[in-house]
Amino acid sequence: MIGMQQQTSAILNISKEIQEKLSSLLLRTGEATEFSYGDAAANERMPIARATSETAGRVNVMYPALPSHHTEAFFHIRDFAKFQKEPDKVLGSIRVSDDLVLCGYSMKMEVVLHYHDNGYVVSLYFMLCQSSTDSQLKWPFRIPFTCRFVHPTNSTKDILCKTVRPSDVSRVERRLGQYCRPTTTANPNVLCKPTAVVTKLEKGGYISRDSLCVGIKLHPEMLF
């Protein structure tokens, strides 16, 4: 009997600890918008100092293989100071996200840092990837999309790239197969302009905690 009482007491204590931890987690979730890391090295989430009220309705937190109704995802480039020291004179320094699933399509974001006109610039690229659900999707890919450099505390300062409309690509671009159903791991990448000068990102506060956040948003409503 004493043994059973001790076991019951231990279970109640564990239950209490779990409830306390859950309460703390829910409180933090309500205080800050969380962004995901898209790189394989870090699947944990990083809270950004934006109030939920400021970003409500604007941000869908995105993780690999989420349901197809999501339209927006974010990718963090951590250790940015180290990233700046890596550029190859020809290829530059490259970071690629894990697969992101938006509107049912699997894709990656590619961030390239390279030297140009006496300074370093960051370019954003988009690429479609193979997935197990490709046979259920419409091809070629037609959904307009916009990439952006995300400001960590003020969404009005986000640097938006020009919205890309796959249906408007030229014949030359169409031959590259960037928006066709992928027959390899990933299609050729698509550059999203304009690029951003690193010194501007630093002075503007876009690099926070040695991390740069970039994002991509699909616009299915623009199809019609």
TrEMBL record:
InterPro entries: TRAF-like, TRAF1-6_MATH_dom
First and last residue of the signal peptide: none
TRAF1-6 MATH domain span: 103-214
Superkingdom assignment: Eukaryota
A Pfam family this chain is assigned to: TRAF-mep_MATH
Coiled-coil regions listed in the entry: none
Protein's name in the database: TRAF1-6 MATH domain-containing protein
